[in-house]
Amino acid sequence: MDNRFILRRAIDTDNVTLAELNQQTFIEAYVEDLAIPFSEEQLQSYFRTSVSPQYFAKKIADSQQSIWVVEDKTSGELVAFGNVGRCEICHPDSRIDEDGEIYRLYVRRNYQGYGLGRWLMNVILSWFEEQYPRRPIWLGVWIGNLKAQNLYKHYNFYIVGDREFDVGGYKCHSKIMRRDSSSS
Predict the structure, then answer these.
(1) Is residue 63 a part of any domain in this protein?
(2) In what residue span(s) does the N-acetyltransferase domain sit (predicted)?
(3) Which residue range(s) make up the domain with 34?
(4) Where are the alpha helices (DSSP H) in 27-177?
């Protein structure tokens, strides 16, 4: 990996920056790239409840989860992150609290192409091998985000279903993906 970047665990003081990074990458991916017609009110409602500094403070403090961040050493900015933990996806085959889940994996648009998503994914999969040995890993990915789906397929995730989630009152549709424990 390029010496320009460092990958580390998130610390308590990263919560505000993580909220800002998540909001920025969400807008880049879903509003700008995929042209999903969220209203400003829907986005702000979602950001207040699901990606606020308080939300990330709880995630960082949760011993059952882990957040890794990628920092650009030249600017000091956080440019990517991944958040993982116990499975919360409702699916007939998932085992809540026994399986693992990738909650979020985002890379700022102008930092894509450096291999940061793959770097994060490799660290995440190693963490799952330690924390959830021989258990499946689950994730949800926006139905139209083919770039992300292709990254996950590269790591042997496959689509097993659909789910709906709420972004400030706007009903979103995503694919549920699973990676079996024997995948490498």
Answers:
(1) yes
(2) 5-182
(3) 5-179
(4) 40-50, 53-61, 116-131, 146-154
Please give the mean pLDDT across all residues of the chain.
Answer: 94
Q: Where are the beta strands (DSSP E) in the chain?
A: 5-9, 65-72, 78-86, 100-107, 137-142, 158-167, 170-179
Cα–Cα distance for residue pair 159/138, rounded to 1 Å: 10
Q: How far is CA 55 from the centre of its chain?
A: 14
Predicted confidence (pLDDT) per residue in 5-42, tens digit = 999 999 999 999 999 999 999 999 999 988 999 999 99
Q: Cα-Cα-Cα-Cα dihedral of 87, 90, 92, 94, to 10°?
A: 0
pTM metric for this prediction: 0.93
- The CATH number that applies at residue 20 is 3.40.630.30
In this predicted structure, what is the pLDDT of residue 97?
81
- Judge whether 78 and 70 are in contact, CB under 8 Å: yes
In a domain, 154, yes or no: yes
Q: Quick check: 130 and 100 in contact, CB under 8 A?
A: no
Cβ-Cβ contacts under 8 Å for 65 (sequence gap 6 or more): 59, 83, 84, 85, 86, 103
- Give the count of beta carbons closer than 10 Å to the beta carbon of residue 177: 23
Q: Which residues are CB-contacts of 48 (< 8 A; sequence separation ≥ 6)?
A: none
CA 162 to centroid of chain Cα atoms: 17
H or E segment to which residue 18 belongs: helix 15-26
